[in-house]
C-alpha cells in the first residue's frame, strides 16, 4: 500500500521533490518505492529525466485503479467498525405475505432511518419455511406466526389484529347491523385454511367460530388466493384484518362476534445464538420504536 501511495503522490504532483514533501519523506526512498512498484507491476509507470516527470500510458491507467484502491483501504477500517457496531452489513429478513400488507413496511422504514448502511435482503416465506431458514442460517430475522420454540428462538410480538370474515359485496351477511355470529354461517359456503399448510389460521378460525365442515367448498393455504375466491363469489373466508389492504374488488370485510379482536399475532423471530451485529442493532431499535399498522399494537 505504501508503494501505491507513493505512486499516486508522484503522479499527482509530477515532481519527486513535492511528492516526497507531501509524504514526509526524502526523495531517494520515494524513488525506490516507485521502482519496486514498477518491478512488481512489470511495466514502466513513470517517465522521468532531469527536466520533467510524466506518466506513461500504462501509468495513467494504473492511476485510476490506484486511487480507488487507496479509497477502499481508507474506508475498510471504518466499514469494519460499522459492521462490528451493527451499523453496516447485511440483514436477511423472512416475511409472510400478510406481513407485507401490514408491518413489514414499517420495519423497513425503521431500518432505513436508523441503519442506512445495512443492506436488507427480503425473502417471502410461510412460517414453517422461515423457522427452517432461521435454523440453517438462511435468514437472520423472521416475521412469522406462532407457535415458536422458545428453546431455539427468541421473539417479540410486533403486531396484533382482528380476525374478520371476508364476504362477497352483495352477500346477505353484509345487511346485518351487527357482528357476524356462528349461526349466521350455518348454510354458508366456506373457503377454509388448509390444516396442514396454514395451520395457524386454521386453528384460529375453529377456535373463534364453530365451523360446519360440511360447508367447506375450498381449502387453500394463501390469504391472497382465499380473498380472490371470495371476490369470485365462491364463498366466505376467515382472514386477518390487514387482508382488506389487498384491495380485491367485490369483497367486504365484516367483524366477527366471537371474541375475535386482536387475536391474530405476528412475531419477530430470531435465533438465540445469532452473531449478526446488524440484527442486534435492529432489535434494539425495534424495542424502542412503537410499530403501528392501523391496528392496535401488541
From TrEMBL:
Gene Ontology CC annotation, any one = protein-DNA complex
GO molecular function terms here? DNA binding; DNA-binding transcription factor activity
Which InterPro entries does the UniProt record give? Answer: LysR_HTH_N, LysR_subst-bd, WH-like_DNA-bd_sf, WH_DNA-bd_sf
Q: Which UniProt keywords apply?
A: DNA-binding, Transcription, Transcription regulation
- Report the residue ranges that make up the HTH lysR-type domain in this protein: 1-56
The record ties this protein, via SUPFAM superfamilies, to:
Periplasmic binding protein-like II (SSF53850), Winged helix' DNA-binding domain (SSF46785)
Q: Which family does it belong to?
A: Belongs to the LysR transcriptional regulatory family.
Which protein are we looking at?
A: DNA-binding transcriptional LysR family regulator
Which organism does this record belong to?
Nesterenkonia sandarakina
Amino acid at each position: 500500500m505504501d508503494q501505491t501511495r507513493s505512486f499516486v503522490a508522484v503522479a499527482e504532483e509530477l515532481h519527486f521533490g513535492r511528492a516526497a514533501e507531501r509524504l514526509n519523506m526524502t526523495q531517494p526512498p520515494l524513488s525506490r518505492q516507485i521502482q519496486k512498484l514498477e518491478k512488481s507491476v512489470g511495466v514502466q509507470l513513470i517517465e522521468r529525466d532531469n527536466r520533467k516527470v510524466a506518466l506513461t500510458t500504462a501509468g495513467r491507467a494504473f492511476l485510476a485503479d490506484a486511487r480507488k484502491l487507496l479509497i477502499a483501504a481508507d474506508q475498510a477500517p471504518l466499514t469494519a467498525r460499522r459492521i462490528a457496531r451493527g451499523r453496516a452489513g447485511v440483514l436477511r429478513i423472512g416475511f409472510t405475505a400478510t406481513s407485507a400488507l401490514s408491518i413489514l413496511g414499517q420495519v423497513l422504514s425503521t431500518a432505513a432511518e436508523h441503519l442506512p448502511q445495512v443492506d436488507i435482503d427480503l425473502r417471502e416465506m410461510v412460517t414453517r419455511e422461515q423457522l427452517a431458514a432461521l435454523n440453517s442460517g438462511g435468514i437472520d430475522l423472521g416475521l412469522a406466526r406462532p407457535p415458536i420454540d422458545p428453546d431455539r428462538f427468541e421473539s417479540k410480538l410486533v403486531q396484533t389484529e382482528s380476525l374478520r370474515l371476508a364476504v362477497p359485496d352483495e352477500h346477505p351477511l353484509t345487511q346485518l347491523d351487527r357482528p357476524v355470529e356462528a349461526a349466521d354461517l350455518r348454510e354458508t359456503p366456506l373457503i377454509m385454511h388448509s390444516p396442514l399448510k396454514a395451520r395457524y389460521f386454521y386453528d384460529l378460525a375453529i377456535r373463534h367460530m364453530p365451523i360446519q365442515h360440511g360447508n367447506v367448498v375450498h381449502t387453500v393455504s394463501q390469504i391472497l388466493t382465499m380473498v380472490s375466491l371470495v371476490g369470485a363469489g365462491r364463498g366466505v373466508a376467515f382472514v386477518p384484518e390487514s387482508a382488506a389492504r389487498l384491495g380485491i374488488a367485490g369483497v367486504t370485510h365484516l367483524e366477527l362476534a366471537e371474541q375475535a379482536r386482536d387475536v391474530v399475532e405476528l412475531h419477530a423471530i430470531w435465533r438465540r445464538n445469532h452473531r449478526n451485529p446488524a440484527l442486534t442493532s435492529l432489535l434494539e431499535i425495534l424495542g424502542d420504536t412503537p410499530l403501528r399498522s392501523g391496528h392496535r399494537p401488541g
